[in-house]
Every structure is written in structure tokens, then in C-alpha cells.
Amino acid sequence: MPAKKTAKKADIKDLVIRVCVGTGGLAAGSQEVMDEFGSQLKSHGIKAEIVKKCVNKTGCRGFCAKDVLADVILNDKSETYQLLTPEMVSRIVEEHIVNGSPVKEWLVGPEYHAFHDKQTKILLKQCGHIDPEDIDAYIKIGGYEGARKIFSLEPSEVIEEIRASGLRGRGGAGFLTGLKWELCSKAEGSPKYIICNADEGDPGAFMDRSVIEGNPHSVIEGMVIGGYAIGANYGYVYIRAEYPLAIQRLKIAISDARKKGFLGENIFKTKFDFDIKIKEGAGAFICGEETALIASIEGKRGMPRAKPPFPAHKGLWGKPTVINNVETLSTLPTIITQGAKWFSSIGTEKSKGTKVFAITGKIKNTGLIEVPMGMSLREIVYDIGGGCEKNCALKAVQTGGPSGGCIPASHIDMPVDYESLMAIGSMMGSGGMVVMDDTTCMVDMAKFFLSFTQNESCGKCTPCRIGTKRMLEILTRITNGKGREGDIELLLELGNSIKLTSLCGLGMSAPNPVLSTIRFFRDEYEAHIRDGICPAAVCKALRIYTVSVELCKMCGKCFKACPSAAIAWEKKQPAKIDKGKCIKCGACYEACPFNAIL
Amino acid sequence: MKHARLMQYCSEYWEEALSENKIKITINGIETLCDRDDTILKVAKKIGVKIPHLCNDKRLEPYGGCRLCIVEVKGVPRPLPACTTPATENMEIITDNDSIRKLRANLIELLLSNHPNDCMRCERTGDCKLQNLSYEYGVDGSRFEGEKWDLPIREDNPFISYEPNKCILCGRCTRICNEVVMAGTIELTGRGFNSMPDTAFKKPRTLENCEFCGQCVSTCPTGALTDRKGRGKGRSYDLKKIKTTCSYCGTGCNFYLNVRDGKVVKVTSDTDAPVNQGNLCIKGRYGYDFIHSEDRIKTPLIKIGDKFVEAAWDEALDLIAEKFSSLMKKHGNESVGAFSSSRCTNEENFLLSKFVRTVFRSNNVDNCARV
Amino acid sequence: MPQPVLKGESMTDKRCEEVLEKHQKEKGNIISLLQNIQEVFGYIPEDTVFWFSRELNIPASSFYGVATFYAQFYLKPRGKNIITACCGTACHVKGSGPIINKIREELKLPEGETTSKDGKFTVESVACVGACSIAPVFIGNKKVFGKMTIEKASEMLKGIDKGKGA
Ligand SMILES: Cc1cc2nc3c(=O)[nH]c(=O)nc-3n(C[C@H](O)[C@H](O)[C@H](O)COP(=O)(O)O)c2cc1C
Ligand code: SF4
Ligand code: SF4
Ligand code: FES
Q1: Overall pTM surpassing 0.95 (yes/no)
Q2: Hey, which of A357, A408, A441, B40 would disulfide with A536, CB 3.0 to 4.6 Å?
Q3: Residue C117 main-chain phi, psi, to 5 deg
Q4: What is the number of CB-based contacts under 8 A between chain A and chain C?
């Protein structure tokens, strides 16, 4: 405990501390850091209510690798600390806040700025700045202005504005939002519904979670706008039960919005009623598909059904329904306030605005980024992402998660938009982006994604239920060194036929990771099958462990580590591995301190 | 011949269309008219174009699960399922070409890759949609080895045998149970490769949870669900099918008695039956044992003293006539009447009523079916 | 024979009625009802499904179909403590099998069951956890136990029981 000094009230008049408390931040201990800031400030004699005002929580700012992140803004000068722990707080309070000199060695480095500078933040702009549990904070920065504005317009004018903006759905398929709304608004039947799809299930994608955790009111405002435009008085948010923090923040936000008269009857003092209900998912990826999602809200098994009829005509309870993604909805308020023209000036001719991506894999700066559509993959990977980890060579980037495909390094200069991705056999998907370097085995990667979709297949249609299973079995046999001549052709034939005959988007896109890796990395498949080699040395079954006599220091560690007594070793003798007994577990490889096991 | 018939059909249709608001579509080059919401499959069937299908049953809502019914539609980049896709104005459809056949063959291969393929001893051989398709497309499942279901046969009740290994998950049984019978006995359970139709908690079927109407058996396209009582008593092609009307109640359901060597061995649905479209209840489908019962009375019996004694028809009818006549003579016509059974046909009931009114000259005639 | 009524002690189980009341107030559906049941009981007891099926006149198979579709629902009680055995090649070769048997024996798990009768333990297995050098590997409540032996397994069980059992 530092000696108690009394900071003058004047010193802290302009102090704001913002601690990132997204799921990533919380896991890294941001709540403790925040509490520590509070108690440290109090121990410096600052009144509790002032402390409460100046220590704020914010949503995720995207750079989760460096959590806990916190801004200390003193007299309008902002400094950002990274990798904070509660122990570090007292020194920051002491030196920075009380004495005015920031703790230099704990501040974020140039990569933090590089990460942020190239981004164009529309959606994520407020996420790292405002307290997601404070509706007034949202209102202060212009929140709910969009919702207020639309009531001076006719619903058809609102739809026209969204159409003019060129906004396309961010949930995967990229359908024009304005067009979808128009279909629904013209459909006969009442009541109508608007559903926010927050069932984000792609492994590695967490943009929807971040938006709801960081700025839940923008989603609510988006739903109000959509509801008014299509004439729906009811909205549902279908959200994964695995996102407890997002659910909690959304609940708070909905109840605050009701208190302000932004939800409920006669919202914004107009004649329009609109309210939102939260429906929690029960653990099925397929419920992200719109017709399965509707079945799930109705309490049934989440199995997709044939379209047409489209939900815009026959959706929830057979009534006209619009389903939009979280990102799509939370972009709406800005489009309304800033205008369609402004929005459509960002991005490319057919893909407007910005898109949020979650970049992970073998890349230096992992996290959540927002860039204008059409930015080149190179800029994303190298300028924002900082290039590959350990400066390995980039091999490919997988976009669109398990529904997408890979883009080889040779296409790194391609623009990232709906059409270009489609053309190369991948897709935008929800925005997952996995960077792979030469230590990644493409066959193994394809297997990983396919095993996810196979496991999540609902089982309704033949190609997806049995076809993905058979493809996975073939891939497994290839990675186990039991691949056969003709397996690649079989995979291609099966993959194409699954794509063409499946009922829903899951089956239609499940073969993509396999087909695109065969397209660009066929030699890797062939190496597995013909030569029994995994070029990236990932597939364990294909490895042949040997001891390098030059490197072996005869310590015997591998001998002790081997679980199947396949290693012969005596003191002062290099170890030897018996191929027959080796079970290829890699224990010796891990155990050797001298990298002598090859 | 067939074509000429089709042309005639089409021209009739054209005329009909001029008065109503029909839409025009083309299937395999044949122009036809249909209602706006008709599915492609329905229209194709009407004009005699065959499209293979497994999960479709006209008694049920379209499902779109098996994908066998895919067809090409001009201007659409991917094949569409005929069973769920509604016809739209000027749609041009091709139901059969090399690429479609190849895709269908793949689907059949996949189904067979998780199938026991023991047609030799299967109850449904010769009457199995899957087997027929395998024959027609010349494929088996051998290109895809891998996990296969290996589940025991379930014979936990007297009427319905269930061999899950033969199930192709078309969902027809569960849908008929819920959509038509509304019994909710079975439902799809599990997910993905491991989903299968079953009862709650895989409990045996009993009278508490099952109607034993056998509707699920009637719709199953494979040997997964079969009538247990008929098992081993003859394949479909061994059995003579005699169409008849059910004698249990007055509804008038039709079905086929399946007869071998003069014995009824099972009852199968007649899906074209006007009254019941193939739907039946437990009595109609499984209550046929009485036909060959030892206890069945086949001649009239006359009570002499305490005992019933077999008699000839003439003898019995003479006795009845004599007794009725003497009763009427003694107590008047109003003293007699007749009561007929709703298990009789309409014609028989009409006859009886006529008989009572003209011969007895009485209005005392009634029927048990006055619910 | 299925038991469509709540039997024995649970007949008097007020919890079901409370769940029912909540369900009717919220105008819920099968999924939300199952979620509520699981919240109260920790899993979906068979009896409760038949009970609700009767009360609400919804076929039990509809509940079962939904409960087996979604990954969130458990049809068997899971133990307070979860023991996960690694079934990778290395662990298998190093003798995880006999250890699993020993653990199952100590917990008196009959064939095909994964959770002990007193509900304290659930024993599950996973594919290789990637810690082959310390095989056989067991995970007890997320803590990794390496180089497991039959003796250490008993200790682990006891330790976990003491730590969390109360
Ligand atoms: C298998 C599958 C999973 C999906 N998962 C999601 C999801 O998690 N979130 C989402 O917003 N859309 C998901 N979608 C897309 C939705 O079906 C739908 O297109 C989208 O919610 C529409 O919203 P948008 O127009 O705003 O993009 C999924 C689609 C499929 C086929
Ligand atoms: S494609 Fe897969 S997930 Fe979609 S309906 Fe078919 S089986 Fe279900
Ligand atoms: S049992 Fe028969 S009807 Fe039922 S899903 Fe299986 S194949 Fe279809
Ligand atoms: S009959 Fe059309 S998909 Fe099965």
C-alpha cells in the first residue's frame, strides 16, 4: 500500500479511466483492474461518487491479445496501458494520475497504433469508448437520434434510404437489406416480426458478441428502425446461451430503453409500438440459419425448411418476418443519421460500408478489426495484423469460417468484398479470418473445418447428413497416412454434389474448405497420399521420428518420455527410435531439449 | 401413344385455363397449366412425368429432405427440389439429364453407404423405393466405406417391427404420426448422422403411447418399418392384393387384403382411396385375424332346446319368415322392426330399410351408427 | 412400460409445479420449458418429461426430440465433479484403460453409465489432449493430472471428493 497522499480535487477534474471489459478483457482480469483503480483513487482521498464517475467500463476495442487495456485520459490527453494487472494499478495512479507522468514502459507500443490507424470504425467506434450499461452515455454521443429521425419519415422512405445506402446483410449471404425489408413490408399478413440473429456460432468469430457487449443500444436502435420500416411491432433477439455477458448487457439495455420510452407502447411519443424479447439458443450452430432459427424460436427442433416461401413472406408463426444480423442492425442508426450517400461512399461499387473481421491464427496482432469493404487482403494481414507470427511465410488466409475457403498467399492483393471472395471459392461469412503460415497443414485445416460442420449438421437432408460424414472419413484417412489414389477425385465429386443438392446454407457451403484447399494446395494432398508425407509436419501419423546423431547430446530424456518403449538409449550413446514400436505420439519430440528429434 | 394422350390432356388443360387464372409451365418440353401454388412434383405427376422421390407422400406437407427429386430449372444456377418448389409463370423444367442423374446417383450411393444392404432377406424386397432406385441408377454404396449404423431390430410390440439400420431418415413416419394421426408417438431424435425416428426415451410402443394404426409403416419407403404380423409370410410380389372396403365401421375406408394361398397375411394401404387416402386405424390394418378364426360362424345356427344347431340357409330363412309372419298376425305390423349394423354397406342398409317398410309395412328400422 | 406419471418421492415434487407455473406465465415453448427444467434439476429427468407431457397435453416425444437435438440438454444427471480421461494413443499404450476401469470400479459405475449414483462424479473420455509426454493423462475438474497410476487415481478421487464433495 502506498503512503496516503491527497490528490487535489482539481487534479482529477478531467480524469477519465476507461477499462475494456469485454469477454476477453474480463477473462484477463479487467474487473479486478477496474476495482483496483477505484480503491486506489479512493485511498488518495477522492470521493466515491467522483471515482464512480471517472472510472468507466467500455466494450471490447478489438485488440484482445493485449488485454487488460485501459485508457487514462487526464486533461484531455489520453494514454493507453496494456497487459495490466491489479498490481500495476497503484504505480499508475501514483505516477501518472497524481504526479502527471505516465508509466512509459507499460504504455501500448507502435503495433497498437498501427492496428488501429488503418481501420475505419463505424460500428466499433463506440465500443471501446462508452459504458455499455449506461444508456445516457449512448444518448450523449448521438444515440437514438436515428430512431427519432425516422418517425418524421414514411416507412417506405426509410426503406428507400437503406436501399440507397447499398447496405448488404453482414450475416453471411450479403443480401441487400433494403430489398429484404421491402419484400417483407409488402407481404400480406400481420403481425410482422423483426428478428436479430445473434446466434454467432462460427468458431473464431466474435464480432456480434463484441458489438452487443460493447454497444447494445445500437442493436436495439437498429431494430426499432427496422421494425418501423417494415411495420413490425415485435422484435426478437435470438442469442447464443454461451454469451452470458452479452445477454446480461442486452437485458439491461432493453429495460433502460423501456424506461426512456424508446421501447414499449407509443415509443418516442409517437403512435408506434415496438418491443423486444430475448430468446436464448440451446446449443445448435444450425439455428443461425434463418428458417432453423424460426423453428427454434417456435420451440421446435432447429431444422431448416425449404425456401420459398421466404421468411419475408412466411416466417415466424407463418407471418412475414425479417431476420437481420447484429452487425447489419447496428449499422442502421449511423446510416440514418449520416445519410445513405455518406455510407455508400465507403467501400466498393457492390459492397458498401465497412466490415468487421476477427483475425486469428498465425498472425501477430490477433483481434477484431473494422475496415472498409474492398481493402486488400495484404493491408489487412500486414499493415493491421502485423504479418505472420515469428516472421514465418504466409501461406493462406481462410475467410468465412467453416463455410468459406482459403485464399493462397499468391492472391494476397485481392480486395476483400462479397464478389471477390465468392469468385475465389470462399465467402464473407460472418467475418472470421484465419491466417496460416507454412507450419499449417492444409489438409488438416480442411479436416478441422469439415469436422465442425459435420458435427453441426441437423440431419434433415441426405447430402449433408451422410455426405459430409463420408468426406470427413476420407480426409481422416488421408491425414492418417491411409489415403488412396482417387481420394482427391472422390472428394471433389462428393463435395460438388453436396454443394449442389443440400437443403440449406450449411450443407451448401460445408465442402468449401475442402474444395478450395484442393484447388490451391492439391500438391499437399498428393504428398499425403502418394508420398506419405505431411509437408507441414502437422499430421502426426505421417511423421517418422528419427534422432539426429549430430544433435543428440545423449541425455536420455526422450527415452524416459516415450510411452511405448520405442526408444533405445544407453548412457553415452545416441538414442535410437524403433519405427515399428513408435506410436507417433511426439512425446520424445517434446521432451528433447536439443531439438535432436526430427 | 403416351405422347398423344399427353397432348390431348394438355389441350384440354389449355381450354380450362382460359377461364381460370392458371399459369403456364414447361416440363421436359411439354407445356402445361397449373395452379400458382402447385409444386413441380405435383404438376409433373399430373402429366405423367416421373420424378424419383423418397420423402414425399401426398398425405404429408412437403419436406425436402431426401433431395432425390431435384430438377433443373432454366435460369437457376443450382438444381431445385421438385417436391417443395412451387411452379411459377413460364418456368422451364428439365427432370432428367446426365448431370441430374449423376447427382441423384450420388445421393443414392450415400444412402446405401449407411444401409445394411441385406435385400436378400429383407421384408420389403421388390416393394422398396430405395432398392428400386439403386437398380434404376445402377449404384451401390461401396465407394464410401465408413461408419454404418449397427443397431438392433426393435420388436417390442406385436404389430410394428423397426429396423433402424434400414432407415433413410425421410421423416415420413414421424410426420404422419404428428401431422395426420396426431398421436405424437414417434419424433425425430438426435441430430445429424445420428438422428433417427424414435419414441420418447426410446421406450417400447404400448397402448399408452401408440395408436398402432400402422400409418408409419404404410408410409415408410424402405424396410425400416414393417408389419410384424406379416413378416416372413411373403414378399409383395408373392401376395395377391384384393381391394376391399373395411367392415369395421361405416366410414368406408378402402385397403388391400394381401392374400397368399387363400389366407390374408397382411393389409396394405390404398393411397388412392377416396375416403381415406391410405390412412387406416388399428382395426382396419391389424384386426384381420378373425377372418381365419376357428371360432368364426360360417353357417346359420338354430336354437333347439339349449343348444345351437347348424342349419342350411333355406331352413333358417324359412324359420325366420314363419316366426315374423305369425308375430305380425298376432300383434300387428308395428310389433316388429329391424336394426342394422353400420358394418354393413350402404346398399345392404338400404335394402334392409326397404324390406322393413315394404314387407313388414313398419317404420321400425334403425342403424347402430347414430353418433 | 413407460411411467407417464411422476413416481415415488418426486410425485410430491413441488419443483415441477413451480416450473409449470413459470412456463404458463411466460407463455414459453418446449425449449424454454426444458431450459427451466434443467435449471431446476440440473438435467432433464425422464419423469418430469412425462409429467409435463400430461399436464400440457404435448407428446413426450416432442420433448425428447427437442432435448436430443440441442447440445445444451443433458438427459442424465452429470456429476458435481467431472473426470475426463484422455483416450489418445499414448495414454492408451501407457495403460489408461486399467486406470479408467479402476476409477469406474471405485465409483461403482455400471456398464454404460458415466455418472456415479450419488451424483458426485461423471467420468468421460476425450480424444488426445496433446500431453502425451506425461501420459496417461486425466483431467479432474479442469486440473490436469499427468503420469497417472492406479494409486494416484484413488488419491485424485479422494482429493476431489474432499475439496468439493461437501
Ligand atoms: C448454417 C448457417 C449458419 C448461420 N449462422 C448465422 C449466424 O450465426 N449469425 C448470423 O447473423 N447469420 C447466420 N447465418 C445467416 C442467416 O441465415 C441469415 O442469412 C442472416 O441472419 C440474415 O441477416 P443479414 O441479411 O443481416 O445478413 C447462418 C446461415 C447458415 C446457413
Ligand atoms: S444442409 Fe445439413 S444442416 Fe442444412 S438441412 Fe441439410 S442436413 Fe440440415
Ligand atoms: S423409418 Fe421409414 S418412414 Fe421413418 S424416417 Fe426411416 S425410412 Fe423414413
Ligand atoms: S421428395 Fe423432394 S426432397 Fe425428398
Answers
A1: no
A2: A441
A3: -60, -35
A4: 64
